[in-house]
Amino acid sequence: xxxxxxxxxxxxxxxxxxxxxxxxxxxxxxxxxxxxxxxxxxxxxxxxxxxxxxxxxxxxxxxxxxxxxxxxxxxxxxxxxxxxxxxxxxxxxxxxxxxxxxxxxxxxxxxxxxxxxxxxxxxxxxxxxxxxxxxxxxxxxxxxxxxxxxxxxxxxxxxxxxxxxxxxxxxxxxxxxxxxxxxxxxxxxxxxxxxxxxxxxxxxxxxxxxxxxxxxxxxxxxxxxxxxxxxxxxxxxxxxxxxxxxxxxxxxxxxxxxx
Length: 259
Fold this sequence. Notes:
CATH architecture of the largest domain: Alpha-Beta Complex
CATH superfamily of the largest domain: 2-enoyl-CoA Hydratase, Chain A, domain 1
Number of domains: 2
CATH class of the largest domain: Alpha Beta
Strand order of the largest sheet: 1-2-3-4-6-9
Strand content: 15-25%
Number of helices: 10
Low-confidence stretches: none
CATH topology of the largest domain: 2-enoyl-CoA Hydratase, Chain A, domain 1
Order of helices and strands: EEHEHEEHEEHHEHEHHHH
Helix content: 40-55%
Number of strands: 9
Mean pLDDT: 96
């Protein structure tokens, strides 16, 4: 697919979506948010894609909303979120495929939300996350108010949001905000370890796991027990389950196809 502000590449089961406005630290203007919506739709439809990498070109991952775009234009924040940002976050969380965030630099504001909406974050030692909204008199959006309390607890989430505290990669790892931190020179190799795994994993089962864990945050134990039984029936009917059992009995590595 051809985009103006994104790089979109697919190969060996991996789709890589790269925010490509490096001169603006990959700040989000109207056009790039609509392109992101289209990119997530393409990923969802492409059966060849079994894992997605989300990253930024240049020094930054994403500096959030482009405050310099169309200066002086009066904007409805509600309309902007409903039409631009919320569809992106919903698409990421409902995507039945794993998303690995390659956090190469700063993730601020809505950029931080995009990182947190991923399933796994692999961060460079130079990366930082910051809920910068409060610095311009705004509140967190694009899902940050949902992700943060579940990751770090309500007290720490309040501090990060209300004080706009910058979280460096090492602290982010200790807090559970990111999965792995590596030197910048090793970032691609660290991301590749995850994509190598997911590109040959049982994709349908992983998609169901993602959906289950999303649901579990608002469900009771009894509801999850029933949901587990329901989804296990679906997983048990996949070709990958049959292949997994066969490989186990034959004492070999399973050759999953994602079906």
